[in-house]
Amino acid sequence: MNLQRRHVRLFAAVLTAALIAGVVAGCGQRGPETGGRILLIGIDSADWDIIGPLVEEEKLPNLTALVESGVSCDLHSLEPKQKSPTIWATIATGKLPDKHGITDFMDPLTKKILTSNVRTARTFWDIIGERGMTVTVIGWLVSWPAEVVNGYMVTDYFRYSPKPDRPLPKHLTYPDDLRDEVELLRVVSEDITEEDLDRFIDLDAAMTADEAQRLPIEQMFVEMRGMSELEQLANSLRDILAGDRTFLSVARHLMRNRPTDVSIVYLRGVDSASHKFWAAAHPGEVGFAVSRTESRVFGSTVARYYEYADEMLGVLIDEFGDGTVIVCSDHGFEGPKPGQTPGGINDHGPIGILVMSGDAFKNGVRIPERSVRDVTPTILALCGLPVGDDMDGSVIEDAFEPDFLRSHPLRRVPTYERTE
Ligand SMILES: [Zn+2]
Question: 317 CA distance to ligand 1 centroid (A)?
Fold first, then answer.
């Protein structure tokens, strides 16, 4: 009798252990319930119209491979045009700005910078983190101060170099002490050498003073201004590169030494380079005078920067290993129209990019346009989780393999928001 009871007890213990293991796998790290591991790379401003010709020239091998192995589409941005942090907050929450509360870089009334604690909707990384998936979030706009996540966060402010009169704020990372570990990985403008710039610009093509003097007087002034601005433009490029290199290096370090189920990396350089150097590539289209010097030296910088972004993509994918890769942008880029003030959202185009490649998704298929609102619902579906009824986006169903949807039927919950 005693022996039998002991067997029953042992059986119960084994069953409990199995159940716990099953539950853990279900919340899971690598199990099929979660769609496996995910790498999401946000490339601000990436635009198919600029990507297309570069793909034709075989200059973007990593993005091309993702498109060929996955599903891709136009990703409609918010309308009317919004600033980047607002759109990235929609991408991260599946909600429109009236629900997520991130309306700008700065609060239009108080003129104070907007901070992550202004956000009034939960992000997908918070939702999937709560269900046991581990996450790393790097460089996301308006992510400072770092939030508590089930993993690691390095905020957008981490990239700025501390100055004696402007020390960097606290809570640049989560956990706080991660900062010491990644501090040495920060790249600052001064680290970027002439050789680093060589691939993006052609300094030798600058107009000489002799050449400029032979021009009609009005053109000569344009050229002289162009030459005087050369250094400033080159320094802008240094700053842009330093930002992307910082987050690339942090991402590699964390993926290698502290791997998580989900890695999210935001890269701003394509957007900044497009704003700064678009006019050089399209001098006749922007409605203001562009010097020949500027167009000769920086005429290819935007295209070269896309190539660099593709290299970063390759580095991140290699480091990440097997799993689903998602690349998206918040809007496209059209450049300023004649009569418009250049810069800011005037330069942005309405259509960004989305590419998703992994076991759950179709192979080499182009699907109809979707919206930045749909990214979070789609990631939740990929993780086998329901979509919130209060989200403004929906799952991009036609991106998934039918088998995946059969084994992971789409579900809904009223909300993920915490009601106090
Ligand atoms: Zn943007």
Answer: 22
Contact by Cβ (8 Å): 371, 352: no
How many angstroms separate the CA atoms of 252 and 158, rounded?
16
- pLDDT tens digits, 270-312: 999 999 999 999 998 888 889 999 999 999 999 999 999 999 9
Distance 129 CA to ligand 1 centre (A): 26
Crossing angle of helices 301-320/217-257, nearest 10°? 0
Using a cut of 0.85, tell me whether the model's pTM lies above it: yes
Instruction: Collect residues with CB below 5 Å from ion ligand 1.
Output: 44-45, 84, 271, 330
Q: Name 207's Cβ contacts closer than 8 Å, sequence gap at least 6.
A: 223, 226, 227, 291, 292, 293, 296
Cα-to-centroid distance, 302 and ligand 1 (Å) = 15
**Cα–ligand 1 centroid distance for 34 (angstroms):** 29
Half-sphere exposure of 375 (CA within 13 A, CB side): 36
Q: How far is the CA of 64 from the centre of ligand 1 (A)?
A: 22
